Amino acid sequence: MKVRYFAWLRQRTGCTGEEVDPPEGVRNVADLMAYLGGRHPRFAEACAASGVVRCAVNQEHVGPEHPLAPTDEVAFFPPVTGG
Amino acid sequence: MARALVQVQEMAFTPGEELDAFIRAGRADEGAVVSFTGLVRDMALNDGLKALTLEHYPGMTERQLIAIADEALTRFGLHRCLVLHRYGRMSLREPIVFVATSAAHRGSAFEAACFLMDWLKTKAPFWKLEETAEGERWVDARAEDDAAAARWVS
């Protein structure tokens, strides 16, 4: 599964993206956030604050319950500030 | 044929030229063109903003902007609309975003321009990083922007 990080989440994890192979129990976005939090303590900190970490799967905005497939591209980012 | 044009670029642009080109490409039955230009501003006044860098998510940005523009076309019965958004580093007062809409009458053109900006601000994956005299800082999302987008959900 391809994971990407943007803005200050990229700085916190220290990487723009990574290829991960999460364990069996990781079924949705919330599960993946918990799993990635184990690899990046500062990502876990950000996830602990509600509404700060947003997610897109295959470039569409999704909520924490969204199911995941191994071929998905999953992106994590703070609330957007364009315009 | 109604159509939506979306352009994401690093290069600076001149709003007047974009507006001229948009008007010139119009049809005989278009009676109204509305445009909006967003500028780099000093969010906290007198804070010494030196520059702004817009990070984005290539691919998703275009995808989201096309979805927003298509929604505007159908929802407001527009003839055409254009969304131009920059990314990368830019200076104070430089244009960041330009939106233009055209329709038979002004009402839907005005409304659609508001809608496009409200939705773009909450859906398009851009993040602002400010460079000030005191260092770099990421701009926080505003609750007002969420509220502005929410008013279009009926």
Name the descriptors.
A: 83 residues, alpha+beta, Ubiquitin-like (UB roll), 31% helix, B: 154 residues, Aldehyde Oxidoreductase, domain 3, 4 helices
Short précis:
The complex is a heterodimer of chains A (83) and B (154). Chain A has 83 residues and is an alpha+beta fold.
Describe the structure in your own words:
The complex is a heterodimer of chains A (83) and B (154). With 83 residues, chain A is an alpha+beta fold. Helix content of chain A is 31%, strand content 23%. In chain A, strands 2-1-5-3-4 form a 5-stranded mixed β-sheet. In chain A, helix 2 crosses helix 3 (41-48). The longest helix of chain A is centred in the middle third of the chain and has 11 residues, at 29-39. The mean pLDDT of chain A is 95. Chain B has one domain (3-150): Molybdopterin biosynthesis MoaE subunit (Aldehyde Oxidoreductase, domain 3), CATH 3.90.1170.40. Chain B contains 4 helices and 8 strands, in the order E-H-E-E-H-E-E-E-H-E-E-H. In chain B, the strands form 2 sheets. Chain B has a 4-stranded mixed β-sheet, with helices on both faces. Chain B is globular. The model of chain B has no long low-confidence stretch (mean pLDDT 93). The chains are: A alpha+beta (83), B alpha+beta (154). The interface between A and B is medium-sized, with 16 and 28 residues.
